[in-house]
Amino acid sequence: LGVGGMTFNIGSFRLGGIGLAAVTGVLLNLVLPRARAACGKIVTVNTRRRERAVRFLHCSDLHLGRRLCELDLLEDQKYILDQLLDIAASEGVDAVLVAGDVYDKGVPSLGAVALLDRFLTALCERHTPVYLISGNHDSAERLAFGGRLLESSGVHLASAFGGRLERFVLEDGHGPVCLWALPFVRPSAVRAALPEEQIGDYT
Fold first, then answer.
1. Other CB atoms closer than 10 Å to residue 24's CB: what's the count?
2. Could you give the CA distance from residue 174 to residue 41 in angstroms, rounded to a whole number?
3. C-alpha span between 92 and 44 (Å, rounded)
4. Phi and psi dihedrals of 99, rounded to 5?
5. How far apart are CA 203 and CA 201, in angstroms?
6. Neighbours of 187 (CB within 10 A)
7. HSE, side-chain direction, 13 A CA sphere, residue 82
8. Dihedral over Cα of 102, 160, 164, 192: its sign
9. Within 13 A of 56's CA, how many CA atoms are on the CB side?
10. Which of 75, 155, 158, 198 is the most buried (most CB within 10 A)?
11. How many angstroms separate the CA atoms of 54 and 106, rounded?
């Protein structure tokens, strides 16, 4: 599915750990072992249907606020987000993963911010946890605004990398499912967080 770059899929997972990343393989060899050893907060969320494996709705590259040849796509994006809400309800998903590029620009338009607020509020009202990371199009610091308040409502943000990965643990009938949230990260951010390492580029 592509509207303004949106992609999504749905599935059940039965793995010991699932990585949520905006860009696959970016500094994973360096970041994961060290950051995992010094992981951040651990949040445990009980799924509502324990007789089956945990079920995620995964979406990425929403690019909210994107314009195509000066055509405003907000109404199209609103339509797609409404479809995601319907799918989350009909499929009985346990959590929604938003893997980067939430906005199209680091300073999003007012309409784009309002659209994300509407989407997250609808999921919170249904008590569906959301795990969201920033992508290379996002401003990690702006996306992190209100993060502690959002977390109390079930929206868990991993936007700015500070040397520690966020680990979230969901429970189902088979045991714990660990979700490691790694946002898009630039070499300069890794150098600042891990000054003892020799970081030159993305490889």
1. 8
2. 23
3. 19
4. -100, 70
5. 6
6. 15
7. 6
8. positive
9. 24
10. 158
11. 33
Q: Determine the residue type at 78.
A: K
Q: Are 98 and 59 in contact (CB under 8 A)?
A: yes
Lookup: tokens for 92: 């009985």
Q: What is the mean pLDDT of each run of 10 residues along the chain (203 residues)?
A: 43 41 36 46 50 85 90 92 94 90 89 93 94 84 78 82 78 83 78 78 69
Instruction: Indicate the length of the chain as a whole number.
Output: 203
Q: Which three-class secondary structure state does DSSP give residue 30?
A: helix
Show the tokens assigned to 32: 């994961």
Instruction: Lay out the sheet containing 175-182: strands in order across.
Output: 17-21, 175-182, 166-172, 42-46
Question: Token digits for 187?
Answer: 């070499």
